UniProtKB/TrEMBL annotation:
Protein name: Pyrroline-5-carboxylate reductase
Any Pfam family: F420_oxidored
EC code: 1.5.1.2
Reaction it catalyzes: L-proline + NADP(+) = (S)-1-pyrroline-5-carboxylate + NADPH + 2 H(+); L-proline + NAD(+) = (S)-1-pyrroline-5-carboxylate + NADH + 2 H(+)
UniProt xrefs under Gene3D superfamilies: NAD(P)-binding Rossmann-like Domain (3.40.50.720), ProC C-terminal domain-like (1.10.3730.10)
Cross-referenced SUPFAM superfamilies: 6-phosphogluconate dehydrogenase C-terminal domain-like, NAD(P)-binding Rossmann-fold domains
Length: 331
């Protein structure tokens, strides 16, 4: 499906929906004329109208005019909305829930979506299939699926360490297969994902995957050797950042600040620093130097980090996680 053919709907027009919609428009992924949004009142619809999107108070109209529909209601409202929409849902619809606390199990129960314990059934009823098993399980799963794979299938592996060469060896010749590695912040649309394509994947297939993932944050096509490095840098890297944030906050608590306030400030500090890196395009060393003044607080703090070998420790952590990702593909 070409990006300009996508018709995107939002049931609910609050902040999260607005942020995602604004991102789609800024990225040029979907024209405003192809976006339809519903809300019970005009309060949240005005900004969408300014963007040139079609707005309505009818949730069914969103479903009827869209193929990709984001559910962005309040949690207590969702069951009523699903009951209203359910008769109009078709196999052509892709439904994406942004509703906090509503599990897939609940969505399946409310929507009557089909779930199964049979992997072959997934393949037979889908054209785009994400492989998300444990690495040691994947060869058995692919052996099961292999007879049913067709040239129409697009298989996307999220399995750490399993190379395209191994995937292609376990699948029929010419199978369209890609490797994808996202990270956890993708669930908040601020993630980082990279992918590599196998020999059977054309530009259109790669563009489709990139288009689907771009609202989740950064999405880059890279040479395959970078996939495991991305795992060590970004997939595992979010945990390094959480540890750093925790240590910063605990330092402030040690000096007398309440833990809640310290945690919020630490998180905001990391967010602001990351945004400056992305928006200025400056090298981290340049921005770090801009904060330091001769004899000031920052250079004294940095001196202690250097004494503790923070730089080398982080580099070693990225290396260790990358090497483990490579090992997982060999196990």
């Amino acid at each position: 499906m070409e990006e300009q053919e996508l018709r995107v709907g939002f049931v609910g027009a609050g902040r999260l929906a607005g942020g995602l919609g604004r991102g789609l428009l800024r990225a040029g992924k979907v024209p405003a004329s192809n976006i339809v949004v519903s809300a019970p009142s005009d309060r949240n619809l005005a900004v969408w109208q300014e963007w040139g999107c079609h707005t309505t108070h009818c949730n069914l109209e969103v479903l009827q005019e869209s193929t990709v529909v984001f559910l962005a209601t309040k949690p207590h409202v969702l069951p009523t909305v699903l009951q209203e929409l359910r008769p109009a849902v078709t196999p052509q619809h892709l439904l994406i829930s942004l509703v906090a606390g509503i599990t897939l199990q609940k969505l399946q129960r409310e929507w009557g979506c089909h779930t199964t314990h049979c992997n072959l059934e997934v393949l037979q009823e889908s054209t785009v299939v994400f492989l998300a098993t444990k690495p040691h399980v994947l060869p058995t799963v692919l052996q099961e699926l292999r007879p049913a794979v067709t040239p129409q299938h697009l298989l996307i592996s999220l399995v750490a360490g399993i190379t395209l060469q191994k995937l292609q060896r376990l699948l029929p010749a010419g199978t369209k297969v890609l490797r994808l590695m996202p990270n956890l912040p993708c669930v908040l649309q601020v993630g980082a994902a990279v992918f590599s394509r196998g020999t059977g994947v054309g530009d259109g297939d790669a563009a489709l995957l990139q288009s689907l993932l771009s609202p989740c944050g950064l999405c880059e096509e890279v040479p395959e050797p970078y996939i495991n490095i991305h795992t060590g840098l970004s997939g595992s890297g979010v945990a390094y950042v959480y540890l750093f944030a925790e240590a910063m906050a605990e330092g402030a608590v040690k000096m007398g600040m309440p833990v809640g306030l310290a945690s919020r400030i630490a998180a905001q500090t990391l967010l602001g620093a990351a945004k400056m890196l992305l928006e200025t395009g400056e090298h981290p060393a340049k921005l770090r130097g801009d904060v330091c003044t001769p004899g000031g607080t920052t250079i004294h703090g940095l001196y202690q980090l250097e004494k503790g070998a923070l730089r080398a420790t982080i580099m070693n952590a990225v290396q260790a996680a990358t090497e483990r990702a490579c090992e997982m593909g060999e196990d």
